[in-house]
Amino acid sequence: MSADEAELRRQAERFANELTATVRGVIGPQAPPFQAVYESGGRRLVIATPAREDSPSPPIPITIDGKLRLELSVTLKGTWDGAKDYLAIEESKAAVRMAGGNAEPLFRWEYIRHPKSNIPGAHFQVHAHRDEVVYLLLSGGAANRRIKNRLDQLDRTSPTIPQLSNLHFPVGGARFRPCLEDALQFLVEEFGIDRQDGWKDVLCEGRRAWRRAQTGVVVRDCPDEAVRVLRSLGYKIEEPHAKPPVSDRLAMY
Predict the structure, then answer these.
(1) Which domain holds residue 139?
(2) Average of per-residue pLDDT across 104-130
(3) CA–CA separation, 75 vs 47, rounded Å?
């Protein structure tokens, strides 16, 4: 393993340990740990709960009033950022399902660093059924490629009916997307899941660390704006001779 690979793995393992501490600080010590392993033959590190060979990562069990009710699955894939300074998350997925029920999730959060279609890079999906949503999913202009594909699927021998889960609700793009702490607090506040004493402090600390890291990335994306704000606060800043370009990440859908 090269020095670069070793450093990347070190950063990924530290991130995995932080996720483990956050989840256990809310769910409890019985929550499985996260680990970081390289994809088979790949350059990316997968951060997830440990799985047996050729098996998916096991979900995190969640109880309500002491009874197993929900399962939370979390998987992240990361590699070096462009400058090889920090671990960059290329994909992240978090899904909540009924325990022991249908494999289809109730809802899920996803992030794709380089989306290959016109879906938002960071999005939230709800798996449910409403007639009004089906109507709207089929009512857009024929020039819209996604809507045209839905209409074409209706003419197949086994037609596919659009569902609410086909919608990808944007949630802040690459830089301002929700974090795992947000998903965990959502489950506490909306479903009353069982949690540990001090759970909110754990989430606030994790969220604070996440947003500090994201603030650093945003500053690197748009240094001119960072300089403007810091100067307005009284900081003395000397600009470099060659200014770095503004990243298009700030405009990402």
Answers:
(1) 129-162
(2) 89
(3) 6
